[in-house]
């Protein structure tokens, strides 16, 4: 789990924590059909083990008993689909090679007739994603205490996960989980294996994956909460908003390692200033009042410890949906929102940063800029240009984690250091052009730079966690000249780049290596991709999803050495919109959560050894 202290600063937060939620992907994740072969081999147990014409095998318990004390590798002979009592199908997708290897991969397929969920609960992609998330959580609770079994249920976000999917055709349910197959040393412990596979897992399906065993009201509330969040997010463009924070929302988190809502008498629930209050009609919650964050340049100001970063963090996580009771269920941002920060030492490959960095002393061409060790200012400039290149329409920046010299150069510094001796052009001089000329809005947290008051369309002040609209007063103050001169007239736009797919090879010794190390590092082939500064990753499983998405783009030819990165991401979005989980499962059956295009693009841009072509 990522430490929140790694760069948010956060001197003005009520609470800190991870951030996240879920993004809808078209049809959602239908998963494997219960009775198809799915393209996987069934392996084989003892010669003559009973099979059915459909490819299902019977007698798993008997097969296991015959393996008592056998070499551990004999588990591989059980790979395939087995019919269990009650109609559930257990599939051993991948067996462990030895007791110390990563857990085996197991899937439970519950046919629609056994699952029994009414069609209204899975009739849309959003409902399927929400129902699957709910069921994964129920299954995780059902196997709690079984150390050999692991269900990826997630945290406060409702993401499209490989751990559970609902079939779009008939409502059948598939649960995928890790299972450490029992052994005594390097010998099979058949009795314990029989208990896990033939008793615990069927009981889990019975208790957690069937409608008649579920709390119908709780299921409906979970689905309706997600559906309202999606509807609210989709309504933002038509309202001219980039974000919305509902009245009564609980924004602070319990701690930097606990993303649940903070509790206690000192917690202040959010209440919108009258000037920014809007009401939105939602499918289930009805008419909901809250603060609308308008398009344009928005400034969040206030003293330290008063809640500025907490508000920004809520908008940062508003790209995802949240579980009921999270406190941020109706805090949303446009799906094209990207958080930026400075990132000393990052790799930059052929990015046009001349809007912010020009005439370097060594004569480097900043219209085609590369470095293996970017400074804070050049890294932030590159990240902004890369985000816009990938399609970002809203930028979030907190001065606590930004490069000061890229954000502002005040009048006194302009007087002391002439512009022809300063390569950097501060963002304050291009931020309005980003919106006016390119349709890119922004929300900036500022506690120390008053020069942004002059360029802001809206200014919200946080005082003891309570927001007020101080735009009029801010503009009065900004009307008093400081002697500062603008150093740029416009943001010129970005240059499209074409990734070389040969530089994005996931294979190591003939096999793909895609592995997450928490939320911070993706092992992709020989590359260790540092994602610490990609702050909208909500869950470690999304890091795995990012790696699978990169590999999918290469395998499918979306990255072909001719298409731009943005064009390849468009094709990826189309593929994930069909069925995000199923598409990524074609790369590898693993626990993952589907990523957005922006985190995938950020990973591409941080691969050391990446080669980019220019159109």
Please, could you describe this protein's structure?
By secondary structure, the protein is an alpha+beta fold. It has 14 helices and 29 strands. The strands form nine sheets. Strands 1, 2, 3, 4, 5 and 6 form a six-stranded antiparallel β-sheet that branches. A six-stranded mixed β-sheet has the order 16-19-20-14-21-22, with helices on both faces. A four-stranded antiparallel β-sheet has the order 12-13-9-15, with helices on both faces. α3 crosses α4, α3 (125-142) packs across α5 (216-239) and α12 packs across α14. The model is unreliable at 1-53 (pLDDT under 50).
Features:
single chain; 615 residues; 29 strands; 20% strand
List the uncertain runs. Answer: 1-53
The secondary-structure class comes to alpha+beta
Tell me how many strands there are. Answer: 29
Regarding quaternary structure, how should these chains be classified? single chain
Short description:
This protein is of the alpha+beta class and 615 residues long. 27% of the residues lie in helices and 20% in strands. A hairpin with a 3-residue loop joins strand 12 and strand 13 (286-294).
């Amino acid at each position: 789990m990522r430490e929140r202290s790694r760069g948010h600063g956060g001197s003005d937060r009520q609470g800190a924590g991870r951030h996240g939620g879920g993004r809808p992907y078209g049809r959602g994740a239908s998963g494997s059909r219960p009775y198809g072969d799915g393209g996987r081999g069934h392996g084989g147990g003892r010669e003559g083990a009973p099979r059915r014409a459909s490819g299902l095998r019977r007698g798993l318990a008997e097969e296991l008993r015959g393996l008592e004390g056998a070499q551990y590798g004999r588990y591989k002979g059980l790979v395939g689909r087995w019919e269990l009592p009650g109609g559930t199908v257990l599939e051993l997708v991948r067996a462990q090679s030895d007791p110390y290897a990563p857990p085996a991969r197991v899937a439970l397929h519950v046919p629609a007739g056994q699952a029994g969920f009414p069609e209204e609960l899975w009739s849309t992609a959003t409902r399927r994603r929400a129902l699957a998330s709910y069921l994964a959580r129920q299954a995780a609770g059902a196997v709690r205490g079984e150390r050999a079994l692991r269900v990826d249920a997630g945290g406060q976000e409702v993401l499209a996960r490989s751990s559970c999917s609902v079939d779009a055709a008939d409502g059948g349910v598939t649960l995928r989980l890790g299972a450490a197959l029992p052994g005594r040393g390097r010998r099979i412990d058949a009795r314990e294996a029989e208990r896990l596979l033939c008793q615990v897992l069927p009981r889990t399906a019975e208790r957690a994956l069937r409608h008649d065993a579920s709390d119908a009201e709780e299921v409906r509330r979970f689905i309706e909460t997600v559906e309202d969040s999606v509807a609210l997010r989709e309504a933002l463009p038509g309202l001219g908003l980039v974000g919305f924070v509902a009245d009564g929302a609980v924004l602070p988190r319990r701690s930097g390692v606990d993303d649940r809502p903070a509790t206690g008498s000192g917690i202040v629930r959010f209440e919108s200033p009258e000037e920014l209050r809007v009401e939105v009609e939602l499918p289930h919650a009805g008419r909901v009042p809250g603060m609308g964050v308008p398009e344009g340049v928005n400034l969040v100001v206030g003293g330290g410890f008063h809640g500025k970063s907490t508000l920004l963090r809520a908008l940062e996580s508003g790209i995802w949906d949240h579980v009921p009771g999270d406190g941020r269920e109706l805090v949303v941002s446009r799906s094209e929102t990207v958080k930026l920060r400075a990132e000393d030492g990052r790799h930059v490959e052929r990015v046009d940063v001349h809007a912010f960095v020009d005439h370097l002393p060594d004569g480097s061409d900043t219209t085609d800029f590369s470095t293996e060790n970017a400074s804070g200012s050049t890294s932030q400039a590159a990240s902004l240009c890369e985000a816009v290149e990938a399609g970002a329409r809203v930028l979030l920046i907190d001065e606590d984690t930004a490069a000061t010299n890229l954000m502002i150069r005040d009048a006194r510094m302009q007087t002391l250091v002439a512009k022809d001796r300063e390569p950097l052009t501060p963002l304050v001089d291009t931020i309005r052009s980003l919106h006016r000329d390119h349709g890119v809005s922004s929300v900036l947290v500022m506690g120390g730079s008053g020069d942004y008051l002059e360029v802001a369309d809206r200014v919200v002040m946080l005082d003891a966690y309570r927001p007020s609209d101080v735009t009029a007063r801010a503009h009065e103050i900004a009307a008093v000249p400081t002697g500062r001169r603008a150093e740029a007239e416009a943001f010129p736009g970005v240059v499209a780049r074409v990734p070389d797919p040969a530089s994005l090879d996931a294979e190591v010794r003939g096999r793909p290596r895609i592995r997450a190390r928490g939320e911070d590092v993706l092992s992709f082939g020989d590359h260790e991709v540092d994602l610490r500064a990609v702050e909208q990753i909500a869950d470690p499983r999304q890091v795995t999803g990012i790696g699978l998405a990169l590999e999918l783009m290469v395998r499918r030819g979306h990255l072909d050495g001719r298409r731009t990165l943005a064009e390849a991401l468009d094709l990826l979005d189309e593929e994930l919109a069909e069925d995000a989980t199923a598409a990524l499962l074609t790369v590898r059956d693993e626990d993952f959560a589907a990523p957005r295009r922006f985190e995938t693009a950020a990973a591409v841009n941080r691969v050391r050894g990446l080669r980019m072509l220019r159109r």
